[in-house]
Amino acid sequence: MNDTVIIRQVQNGDTEAFSELVQKYHQNLLSFIHRLVRDQHRTDDIGQEVFLSVYKSLSKFDPERGTPFVAWLYIIARNRCISELRAIEREKRTRHDDFDHMSLGGDTAEEELIRQERFRAIEASLDQLPEPFRTTILKTLEGDSPRDIACECGIPQSTVKTRLFRARVKIKQLMNGYIGGVGHERRI
Fold first, then answer.
1. Are 69 and 7 in contact (CB under 8 A)?
2. Is residue 168 over pLDDT 90?
3. CA-CA 20 to 30 A from 64: which of 33, 127, 130, 187?
4. CA distance 143 to 24
5. What is the DSSP letter of 103?
6. Helical ranges in 17-156 per DSSP H
7. How far is 59 from 3, CA to CA, in rounded Å?
8. Using one digit for the tens of pLDDT, what is the confidence trace for 126-155?
9. CATH 1.10.1740.10 in the chain, residues?
10. Can you give the pLDDT at residue 137?
C-alpha cells in the first residue's frame, strides 16, 4: 500500500495502520541508525524513539508538500542520532573534566588513593552500564531534571524515573564488584 494512503488512514484515526509503516521501514531504519551510532542498544532505543516521534507528529505531516514520508522519517532519525552522539561526547568530556578537577585537599596519600580507586570504579561502572540507563543517569549528574530529560528524549517522565532507578541498582551492583562486596556499599 502507498505511504500516502497509510498516512491518511492514521491521520483519520486508524492507529493500526501505522504498524504497516513500521513494518515497511523498521529494518532499513535500524541499519541506518546503527551505521551512525555503532551501538546496538542505542540503535534499538533510537529506533523506538524515532517511530514514537513520527507517530506523534504524523498529524502534521502533509504528503502534498512534496517531501516523501521516507525522507522525513530518515531526517528525524538522523537528527536523533546527532543528538545522541553529542550527548555521548558531552558525557565523555564531563567525565574527564570531573577527574581533571579533583584536588588533594590535604588528604593523606591513603585517603587520596581510596578516592581515586572509587572514581575509577564509578567510571568503569558507568562504562558498563547499558543504554539508555547510562545517558539518563549522566544527564541527572549534569543537573538535568527527570522532566528535562523526558522532554529532550521524547519519553514519559515515568520512563526516565524507571531508568534512573534501574541505573542506580545496576551501578550499585557493579560498584560492589569493584570495591569488594556488601560491606562497602554504604561508603560509596
1. yes
2. no
3. 33
4. 39
5. -
6. 18-37, 40-57, 69-100, 109-128, 133-141, 146-153
7. 14
8. 888 888 888 888 888 878 888 888 888 888
9. 3-83
10. 84
Task: Give the whole-angstrom CA distance, residue 151 versus residue 149.
Answer: 5
Q: What is the mean pLDDT of residues 111-121?
A: 74
pLDDT for residue 183 = 42
Grid cell, residue 141, equals 549528574
CA 29 to chain CA centroid, Å, is: 17
- Tell me how far apart the alpha carbons of residues 27 and 20 are, in angstroms, rounded to a whole number: 13
The CATH architecture one would assign to domain 104-187 is: Orthogonal Bundle (1.10)
Q: Which fold has domain 3-83?
A: Rna Polymerase Sigma Factor; Chain: A (1.10.1740)
Per-residue pLDDT of 63-115, as tens digits, reads 888 889 999 999 999 999 988 888 888 887 776 665 555 544 556 667 767 77
**Rounded CA separation 187/25 (Å):** 49
Q: Which three cell numbers stand for residue 108?
A: 593523606
CATH 1.10.10.10 residue ranges in the chain? 104-187
Alpha-carbon distances, residue 36 vs 7, 29, 33, 44 (angstroms): 27, 11, 5, 13
The grid coordinates listed for 59 are 498529524
Could you give the CA distance from residue 24 to residue 30 in angstroms, rounded to a whole number?
A: 12
Rounded to two decimals, what is the model's pTM?
Answer: 0.52
